[in-house]
TrEMBL record:
It is found in: Secreted. Residues 358-423 form the Sushi domain. GO terms for molecular function: calcium ion binding; serine-type endopeptidase activity. Transmembrane segments: none annotated. Residues 1-23 form the signal peptide. It comes from Sander lucioperca. Pfam families: CUB, EGF_CA, Sushi. One of its GO terms (biological process) is innate immune response. This is MBL associated serine protease 1. GO terms for cellular component: extracellular space.
Length: 443
């Protein structure tokens, strides 16, 4: 029986022919089956992994072939059957009669995605052997061995299926049956049944992520997702996104935040918030300390981020759990961009914006003049009224005036240059009227 082991090992190490290992070249080394069923198809069909893995547990496999093979092995052709029905059965050759020696059969079962396969054996009667070296049934899925069975009863080294149900992780399953050269006893083989069953994707989560962002609906053969009111299902059919890019903030100050702040913000969303105040004002942004935007320990904001665009200046990207510092822009138009990817639960951000006018340069008080109001600094929309000390009158652009107003303009410049005060002369003819105007002028 070790000859079959030699055969399998020789296949595992990639040897194409059997005879050099066996050392007994006889005519019967040629396959007895159809000429097509030569050694090569066997080597080609039985993948090295599948062949080697049941052998892994064999102690000192190299030493075993030393036992002189008495019988000549016959290379076996692996007959492969493809099964795609939603249910069915499979059995050893000649079942319920004893199975022949030198058999190798494979059933590849595959159904539509959204199903998994259940397999169980209603009859199992194979030649027993230590670690199932001789005759065995191996169940595989996605290249992994799910089970290796042989024998009649469960032992320390042999596993029988009994009433066990084998479930495939996905929608395919492969069963491999192999019998070696010896059949000194009669074994009736096996009968197995399989059926496809729905995968409940909604209750089975993968990769720590919910299958659906909001609501999951299972159905036979698949599932679908839906979103809470106010959200839209993203084109990934999984995450729920929002419309968040319309509307312009025009008030001089205000608050804006990520959707649902401080509840987790929507996934797969690209939001832009535009703030637009009158020209001459400069916007200042102050983030709420409760800042929480998904980040990465090494890469700068690869998932979600906030960015601020103000004129030609860009601030950010910002992410993490620390609020960005106050942002003073030079612009009256600011756009706040917020991008979120398709995973994670983070509280988001909120910010308060204020606008301050452009500052005008400090004013020097001309001799004998008075300013009202007197401030340490003046900004857009501030006004300053000039008057002259008693006995003096204003002269501006060749005109004599009682007072003169300067406006701090949107671009941070004064509307004109300051006027001058000059001492009144002896124009007595107009004095009475001038005095009234100068001293009592209410405007
Ligand atoms: Ca056997
Ligand atoms: Ca389903
Ligand atoms: Ca995220």
């Amino acid at each position: 029986m070790s000859v079959s082991l030699v055969l399998l090992l020789s296949m595992a190490v990639g040897m194409v022919t059997v005879s050099p290992v066996v050392g007994v070249a006889t005519p019967t080394a040629t396959p007895l089956a159809t000429p097509v069923a030569t050694v090569s198809p066997m080597v080609g069909v039985v993948t090295p992994v599948a062949t080697v893995s049941p052998m892994v547990g064999v102690p000192t496999p190299v030493a075993t072939p030393v036992a002189t093979p008495v019988e000549t092995p016959v290379a076996t052709h692996v007959a492969t059957q493809l099964l795609s029905a939603m249910y069915g059965s499979l059995s050893s050759p000649n079942f319920p009669e004893p199975y022949p020696r030198h058999s190798a059969l494979r059933w590849n079962i595959s159904v539509a995605p959204g199903y998994r396969l259940r397999l169980y054996f209603s009859h199992f009667h194979l030649e027993p052997s230590y670690l199932c070296q001789y005759d065995y049934v191996q169940v595989e899925a996605d290249g992994e061995v799910l089970a290796l069975f042989c024998g009649l009863d469960q032992t320390d080294t042999e596993d029988v299926p009994s009433l066990k149900i084998i479930s495939s992780p996905r929608n395919s399953l492969s069963v491999f049956f192999c019998s070696d050269f010896s059949d000194e006893e009669r074994y009736t083989g096996f009968l197995a049944h399989y059926s496809a069953e729905d995968v409940d994707e909604c209750s089975e989560r993968s990769d720590e992520e919910l299958v659906c962002d909001h609501f999951c609906h299972n159905f036979i053969g698949g599932y679908y997702c839906s979103c809470r009111y106010g959200y839209l299902l993203h084109s990934d059919n999984r995450t729920c996104t929002v419309e968040c890019s319309d509307g312009v903030f025009r008030e001089r100050s205000g608050v804006l935040s990520s959707v649902d702040f401080p509840s987790p913000y929507p996934k797969s969303s690209d939001c832009s918030y535009r703030i637009e105040v009158a020209p001459g004002f400069r916007l200042r942004l102050q983030f709420d300390p409760r800042f929480d935007v998904e980040d990465h320990p090494e890469v700068l904001c690869p998932y979600d981020h906030v960015k601020v665009l103000a004129g030609s200046s860009e601030f950010g990207p910002f992410c993490g759990d620390r609020a960005p510092p106050e942002i003073q822009t030079d612009s009256n138009v600011v756009t706040v961009f917020f991008h979120s990817d398709n995973s994670g639960e983070n509280a988001g951000w909120s910010l308060q914006y204020t606008s301050i006018g452009s500052k005008c340069p400090a004013l020097e008080t001309p001799p004998n003049a008075m300013l009202n109001p007197v401030q340490s600094e003046y900004s857009f929309k501030d006004h300053v009224l000039f008057t002259c000390s008693p006995g003096y009158r204003l002269l501006k652009d060749g005109e004599t005036l009682d007072h003169y107003q300067l406006d701090c303009q949107s671009d941070g410049s004064w509307s004109s240059s300051p006027p001058l005060c000059y001492k009144t002369d002896s124009g007595r003819k107009r004095r009475a009227l001038s005095t009234i105007l100068t001293n009592h002028s209410p405007d």
